[in-house]
């Protein structure tokens, strides 16, 4: 049985970098945030979003524009909840179909919203990447076109590290440099392969 491994962490914690390090072990990986973005082009999903939020979320070509959608929904808790109620089931439907097609010791599903979208019970193993907020802030502001206020607003919207620790089977500490992260990727891969073998 293929082990389903969900990987999450706050903005700038190093999820993507960690997945890149694990990629060398050639286990299938799915980026759930990218699944969400690709769904905006799906006709049924777009229709549900337009019904909920109106045509103001469309760009000039009539396609759902995720920046317009985010600008409309994220400042408003009720709209954010509605957006999540539309998107999360569709995202997991795609992810489940993808998982069913995989044959490997384990699959890795990277999802910033793993916890918020109700994905934890769907996983066999949950890996949480943690780094202190001040370190995440420095890394994100140095590498992206984002203001401190935007960073803080995203942190505010996301699950807390306290909540992440509660559901974690493995914790990756990314407060140090890339070598420390690479070492943890190797250790985790070995443990996951062992767990998968024990599972049969
Ligand atoms: P998001 O949730 O926003 O997608 P993320 O958790 O995927 O973020 P990354 O994009 O992997 O985070 O990392 C954020 C930034 O921090 C990147 O610029 C990355 O290169 C840098 N970074 C990650 N880990 C380290 C590290 N151990 N040492 C130095 N820089 C790091």
List key phrases describing it.
200 residues; alpha/beta; Rossmann fold; five-stranded parallel beta sheet; 12% strand; binds adenosine-5'-triphosphate
Describe the structure.
- With 200 residues, the protein is α/β, with parallel strands linked by helices.
- It is 55% helix and 12% strand.
- Strands 2-3-1-4-5 form a 5-stranded parallel β-sheet, with helices on both faces.
- α2 crosses α5 and α3 packs antiparallel against α5.
- The protein starts with a strand and ends with a helix.
- The model has no long low-confidence stretch (mean pLDDT 96).
- Adenosine-5'-triphosphate binds next to α1, α6 and α9.
Briefly note the CATH topology name of the largest domain: Rossmann fold
Q: How large is the count of helical segments? A: 9
Instruction: Name the CATH class of the largest domain.
Output: Alpha Beta
CATH superfamily of the largest domain: P-loop containing nucleotide triphosphate hydrolases
Question: How would you characterize the largest beta sheet?
Answer: 5 strands, parallel
Please mark out the parts with pLDDT under 50 across 5 or more consecutive residues, or reply none: none
Hey, roughly how much beta strand do the residues contain?
A: 5-15%
- Rg computed from alpha carbons, rounded to a whole number of angstroms: 18 Å
Q: Total domains, how many?
A: 2
Which percent bin holds the helix content?
Answer: 40-55%
Tally of strands: 5
For the terminal residues, how far apart are their CA atoms? 6 Å
The outline comes out as globular
Structural class: alpha/beta
Which strand order does the major sheet show? 2-3-1-4-5
């Amino acid at each position: 049985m293929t082990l389903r491994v969900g990987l999450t962490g706050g903005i700038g914690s190093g999820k993507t970098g960690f997945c890149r390090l694990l990629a060398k072990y050639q286990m299938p990986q799915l980026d759930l945030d990218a699944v969400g973005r690709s769904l905006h082009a799906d006709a049924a999903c777009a229709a549900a979003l337009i019904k909920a939020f109106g045509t103001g979320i469309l760009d000039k070509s009539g396609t759902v524009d995720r920046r317009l959608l985010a600008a409309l929904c994220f400042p408003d808790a009720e709209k954010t909840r509605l957006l999540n109620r539309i998107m999360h089931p569709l995202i997991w439907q795609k992810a489940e179909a993808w998982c069913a097609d995989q044959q490997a010791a384990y699959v890795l599903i990277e999802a910033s919203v793993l916890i918020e979208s109700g994905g934890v019970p769907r996983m066999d193993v949950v890996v949480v990447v943690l780094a202190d907020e001040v370190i995440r802030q420095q890394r994100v502001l140095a590498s992206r076109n984002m203001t401190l206020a935007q960073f803080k607003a995203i942190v505010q919207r996301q699950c807390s590290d306290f909540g992440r620790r509660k559901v974690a089977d493995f914790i990756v500490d990314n407060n140090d440099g890339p070598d420390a992260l690479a070492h943890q990727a190797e250790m985790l891969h070995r443990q996951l392969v062992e767990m998968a073998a024990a599972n049969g």
